[in-house]
Hints:
alpha/beta, Aspartate Aminotransferase, domain 1, 2 domains, seven-stranded mixed beta sheet, 17% strand
Amino acid sequence: xxxxxxxLNADFDIDSIxxxxxxxxxxxxxxxxxxxxxxxxxxxxxxxxxxxxxxxxNDHSNxxxxxxxxxxxxxxxxxxxxxxxxxxxxxxxxxxxxxxxGTTEALNLVAQSWGRANIKEGDDLxxxxxxxxxxxxxxxxxxxxxxxxxxxxxxxxxxVLDMQAFKKLLEGKPRVVAITHVANALGTVNPLAEIxxxxxxxxxxxxxxxxxxxxxxxxxVQALDVDFYAFSGHKIYGPTGIGVLYGKESLxxxxxxxxxxxxxxxxxxxxxxxxxxxxxxxxxxxxxxADAIGMGVAADYLLDxxxxxxAAHEHSVLSYALSRAAERSEMTVFGNAPDKAGILxxxxxxxxxxxxxxxxxxQGVAVRTGHHCAQPxxxxxxxxxxxxxxxxxxxxxQDIDRLFDGIDEVMKMFRR
Length: 416
Ligand code: PLP
C-alpha cells in the first residue's frame, strides 16, 4: 500500500522544505538517503549552515569583553540568538534562557545547583520510567549525595504515564518531579501542564526534558507554568554542542552558580566574588558563540514555518507509518500512547535490531537501533534494544514506504 500524496497541509510545502536540507540530497550505498534518525540528531537547513559559516568568516571574536567592531558584532548576534530562543519557548525574559552544551548539561545544572541547595536527607525525587538517562542519572547522583530517594513514576503497556500512581506518589510530598515532555524511546507526549499543576499543588517543582518536544510542537513555558525546561540545539535543526536551560527567574536568581570563571562574575577580589546577573551567572567561560547563533537561526526557522504546521505534518506521516505497521503481524510497536509524536520504535520477530539497522542502511534508510539511552524503558518491555525510526520536518510518506520496503527485504532475508 503506498500513498503518493504529500499534500497533507496546505501551508506546509514539504518539497521546498526538503530542498533546504543539503545533507538529504545524497546517495547511501547507491540509494537516495532516507533520514529517519532526527530523534538522535536532526539535519541542518541551509540558513543554519550559512549563519554559522558567515559568523566564522566575518564576525568571530569573543563576546561581552571587547570594544572593537568584531567583538561588538559577535556580541550583538550572540545576544540576539537568546531573544530568538526566548520567543521560541515564550519565556517571560531572556534572562531566563541559560545556554548550556545541551539537554544533558541543562539537567545536570538544575540537579547540581538547585538540587544541592534545596534537597536534604529523606527528600523524595520523582522520576518517570520513560526518561532518557540524562533525566535519571543526575537525580540519582544528587540523591546519593544528599541521602534522598529517587522514586519511579510508572507507565503502562502503551507507554502512557500512570497518572493514578503519580497522584499517589505526590502524597509523599516529593520536592522534584523530573519528567520528559516527549519520551524519546516511545514518542509518548506527556500531559505536562496537568503534571505541573498537580506537582505544584503538592509543593514540588517540575524539571521537564524538552529534547524531543521542541523539534515537533509549539512549547509555551509560561502556559505550562513549568519551573525548568531543557532542550538541545541539534535536535531543533541547529548545531551540536549548544542547548538551553529555561528556568523561572525567581528560581534561577536564588540558585548558586555551578561553575566559576570568566563572564559569570561582576567583580573578583581575594576577599570574595560578586556574581553576574542572569543569565551570565550560569555561563562561565567563553561561550559557544557560533553555535548559539546557529541555534537562534534554527529557532527562527521553525517559528517561520510554524510549529503547528510542523506538528500537523509530522502527525500525518506518523499516522501513516503506524497504519503500515499495523498491517504487519511480525512487527511489534513500542509506545502506543494516544498522544504521540514523531517516533516509531519497533521490533521484528526473530531479527536482532542491529541487523535491522544495518540492512536498512544498505538500502539507504537511516534508523537508530539500541536502548536509546532509556534502559528502564527497555527493561519494562523486556527487550535489550529496539529499532527506532524518528521523524523530522523533511520526512514524507515516500520515506515511510522506503522504510517498509526495507523491512520487507529484512524479513525476506531472515525467513530464508
Ligand atoms: N532527553 C531526551 C528525551 C533525549 O532524546 C536526548 C537525546 O537523545 C537527551 C535528553 C540528551 O540530549 P543531548 O545529548 O543533546 O544532551
